[in-house]
Please model this.
Amino acid sequence: MFHVLILDTRPELSQKPIYEGNSSSVILPGTEGEFEILDFHKPIISKLKNGTIVVDNSREVLIQGGIAKMQFQSLVALVDLKREKEKTG
Model:
């Protein structure tokens, strides 16, 4: 298991994590393709694209992009959450 912290890029929301906990698997939408982080993964930094972060095949976080860093059994992702378009009319 490794520690996972997912934060929103908006300053007013960055103090409260979108997700924080321990995980054995996180799937991320990298700009070079989807990839999975597992326990004892080597250090990595990756840009993220529009897609879904999946934590332990049970929790999904829809994002527009961001960046993720895995190091020392800790994954931190700073993301732009996908927001619904405002309705007009």
About this structure: Residues 41 and 83 are 31 Å apart (CA to CA). The chain has one domain: 2-81. The radius of gyration is 13 Å. The mean pLDDT is 91.
